[in-house]
Amino acid sequence: MEIIEQMREHDYEQVVFCNHKASGLRAIIIIHDTTLGPAIGGTRMWPYITEEEAVIDGLRLARGMTYKCAAAGLNLGGGKAIIIGDSRKDKSEGLFRAFGKFVDTLGGRFITGEDVGISLEDVDIIGCETRWIGGSSESSGDPGPVTAHGVWHGLKACAKSAFGDDSLKGLTVAIQGMGNVGYHLAKHLHREGAELIVSDIFPDKAKRAEREFQAIAVEPEEIYGVPCDIFAPCALGAIINDDTLSQLKCKVVAGSANNQLKEDKHGVALEDRDILYAPDFIINAGGVINVVDGLYGYNRERAMKKASEIYDTILKVFEISKRDKIPTNDAALRLAEERIELVAKLSSRLRSGPGKGFII
User: How far is 245 from 242, CA to CA, in rounded Å?
Assistant: First the structure.
């Protein structure tokens, strides 16, 4: 893999490889764009088979964060961190403190927090070595519930566009992934009266949804083909691909997972099949909205209100899609890129840390 060429293709600013032998840390920090402000992005811990796989995933996630922040109206750029390891057996205080030291060397160009495999307690340990964290127990806390709140409102906007009514009562929603966000999304949907079908690679999480939400649990490989109104990917990315597209039996794809489309062409393929797609970095912005609110002095009600506005942003993306006759994933990029380009004209310099008015 030619990393520099990959960076040039989508104009990444920086990739940092981190190694600390004593703690076993192998990590990658990726900064995509700081036009709007310091790069923000969670830290993901996952047992990638190869380092190349980890880099590719990190690059995609960092770029997605740039667009997510821009479309949500936040004054931040996009980044991501990857810790290569199994979150169920490889965690240690030393590993997270070592990682925190690496984050600190960037002097505020990168702010991190929770992602897949990383808990609130882990973020607190990282914070022992750097102040450039968001979502610690002392600030905004767990972003999962606010992410789910935003996704729920996004699903309602999708229902309005696809079915003519934003009520989710009586609709069947298939949720892939019953982790933190998937669980809280299921709670919202159950309360509203939706019928749930769920799957997770960890059977105990799917069984919990069966008990609490009267959901129907299916095997992970079966979730793509279940008949439903809305398919909600809430696990890992690249799940809309050549293999899964033909299995889908839904009218809407909308969920919290990052980078749901394996390739841009799959956005076109969804449109060709008359499946409405809610671009992931638009609908799942509640998490970063929550974290950013904590950087200014956390107010839960304010964060929830801002996440609710995802409803309007989703509808705006659909309007651009119809107006410009482009797939919704391209419409979302257009929305984000227009804001980035506007701010770039005001200042072309790289920011070394939080800009004017940024408090942490």
Answer: 6
